[in-house]
Protein: R-spondin-2
Organism: Sinosuthora webbiana
Amino acid sequence: ANYGPNPICKGCLSCSKDNGCIRCQHKLFFFLRREGMRQYGECLHSCPSGYYGLRTPDMNRCSRCRIENCDSCFSRDFCTKCKTGFYSHRGRCFRGCPAGFAALEELMECVEGCEVGQWSEWGTCSRNNKTCGFKWGLETRTRQIVKKPAKDTIPCPTIAESRRCKMAMRHCPGGRRPAKTKDKKKKKKNLMERAQKQHSIFLATDKTSQ
C-alpha cells in the first residue's frame, strides 16, 4: 500500500500510515528515519551513511556507527570510510596519522611509515677532509633506517645532517700553510715588486728631465 506521494511501505511486511514500515522483508534492513519531530520506518537494501547493517534472527536493522567522524562502518566499532578530511587507521578516523605511520593521500589511509633509529653523536669538525688549516668546517651526524615503509612512495625522513663548526686547530702543526695564505703572500710580493719598478722608472725619468 502507498500512503501519500512516497511509497513508504515498499518492502514492508507490515506497515502503518503514520509510522511507515514496522517489519521488513527477510533480506532488507529496517531503518528508522527521523524528520524533525516525526519518525517513520523504512525497509532498505543497504543502510545509509553513518549506519551499518546488523543482521539478527528477529529482523535486520540499520545501526548507527559509534565511531567519531566516520562516514560508513563495518560494525559498531570499525569504520571503513571516514568523513572528508580524516584518515582511516585500524577502524578509527584521525585528522593526522599517529606516530610511526604515514598518510596515503589517494586513499586517505594511514600506513606504516619509515622507521629510523636515534641520531649518532656529531662527527669531527673538518673541511676538505682536513681537521686543521681552516677556521670553520662542518660536522655531520647520521641515523639508520630501522624499518622501510610499506609503500615505496612514502619518503623516509633525512638520515644525515650537517652543521657549521669551529675547528679546534686553525693552523696545522708542522704542515704547510693553506694555499690561500700562499696566494695572499704572492700577491703582496708582486704588488711590492711592481711598486719598486714604478718608483725606479720615476727616478730615471726625473733625472733625464733635469
